[in-house]
Design brief:
Shape: elongated
Strand order of the largest sheet: 1-2-3-7-8-6-5-4
Helix content: 10-25%
Distance between the termini: 28 Å
Oligomer: single chain
Order of helices and strands: EEHEEEHEHEEHHHHHHEEEEEEEE
Strand content: 25-35%
Length: about 375
């Protein structure tokens, strides 16, 4: 997420700390992460901004799906870390919970700067429900406001901001400029909302992308050699941030699904442009969240061959845990290989476990050698 130069927000300066700056391309200002210490401060500051503009009547846009592709460069926004908050109607806003044609409930509020029109609130709820989504849709609260209110709360030049803990998405209710549509900004931000509600253990999905997409894009392997930089902080590294790559992939996923023409890939590095396989993985991440590892068990008795090899496919990055339980009287050695590289070695007559990070290797070989005595063993392998 990216925005321009830092701003001291009068209403928040005693309650917030600047957590990080995320970069833009050369010549563009970096973005920031704000740590907001209480949800009340979030609503108070945003309400104050709304009141400042209540005298000016704006027009809330009626969203159109065809507009999700209109983004003329990096989408400037900020990420807020807030205490969890209930989706109660904030002062200075109208709206509430809307029931969509898909049978889901979506919470949408619009600034009082916009004339009250429940039909438009319903259309924005239907817009979100039309995007590819999972159960996280019911947890989001979309707050729509004029661009100037957004910048006063989210930061100078910011088009939107998002709170992962509060599932609060602050976005423009009208096109913020000729280069950006409100629909493109909301779709990009909703991609971050999806990531915030997915797991990519042991990494944060909001920084690395969800499990299947990140594995397909080799995010871990590329991060190890510096080709990608999750949570990038400086202006030269923003476009290598896979968290932003995921948000834009989410937008591409919806463009293709809805038959909307794709604009040039200008937000992040071309290395993050999704392949067909990555888009398929992204769609699976959205519709069926990855939750846990799979476990395989192998057992064997002593025999003439004292060494046994087992190969396991590892299509997803994450944590590999190998547990060996020799029977009484057997001393065994365990060797784990990723390709030709040995990642762990241990010898014991008792049960033990070893863990390793799967990072780009798509199969592992495990070798168990009986080094003393006779008996049996049980090998358990847990992987994403």
């Amino acid at each position: 997420m990216w925005h321009g130069r830092r701003v001291a927000l009068r209403d928040l300066e005693s309650k917030t700390t600047l957590r990080s700056q995320r970069p833009g391309r050369a010549g563009r200002s970096p973005s920031a992460r704000l740590t907001v210490l209480c949800a009340a401060a979030v609503v108070t500051a945003f309400t104050a901004a709304a009141a400042a503009h209540s005298a000016t009547t704006q027009l809330l846009e009626s969203p159109r799906l065809a507009e999700i592709s209109r983004a003329g460069g990096p989408i400037p926004d900020t990420l807020l870390q807030t205490a969890p908050t209930s989706a109660l109607a904030p002062n200075g806003f109208w709206g509430g919970e809307y029931h969509t044609s898909s049978g889901e409930n979506v919470t949408v509020y619009a600034s009082n700067s916009y004339p009250v029109d429940p039909a438009l609130g319903q259309r924005w709820a239907d817009f979100l429900a039309t995007l590819q989504h999972g159960s996280e849709l019911s947890s989001v609260t979309l707050l729509l406001a004029p661009p100037l209110q957004i910048t006063r709360f989210c930061g100078w030049e910011a088009l939107a901001c998002y709170s992962a803990e509060g599932s609060l998405l602050y976005a423009p209710g009208e096109d913020p400029s000729s280069d950006f549509s409100a629909e493109a900004v909301v779709t990009h931000e909703y991609g971050h909302h999806v990531a915030a509600h997915r797991s990519n253990a042991p990494w944060r999905a909001i920084d690395w992308g969800p499990k299947r997409w990140a594995s397909s894009m080799q995010v871990c392997a590329k991060a190890r050699i510096g080709q990608l930089i999750p949570g990038a902080e400086d202006s030269l590294q923003y476009e290598l941030n896979p968290g932003e790559g995921w948000a834009e992939t989410y937008r591409v996923l919806n463009e293709r699904r809805l038959g909307v023409p794709e604009p040039p890939w200008e937000i992040v590095s071309q290395s993050l442009y999704p392949t067909d396989a990555a888009l398929a993985a992204a769609e699976q991440d959205v519709t069926t969240a990855w939750q846990t590892e799979t476990t395989s068990v192998r057992t064997a008795l002593s025999r003439t061959t004292r060494t046994r090899r087992y190969t396991f496919a590892t299509p997803l990055d994450g944590t590999l845990k190998v547990t060996l339980r020799p029977s009484a009287g057997l001393r065994a050695a365990l060797d784990v290989y990723a390709g030709s590289a040995r990642v762990t070695h241990a010898v014991s007559a008792r049960a033990f476990s070893r863990t390793s990070t799967i990072c780009g290797a798509r199969s592992y070989t495990i070798r168990v050698t009986e080094v003393g005595g006779k008996g049996s063993f049980r090998l358990t392998v847990a992987k994403p």
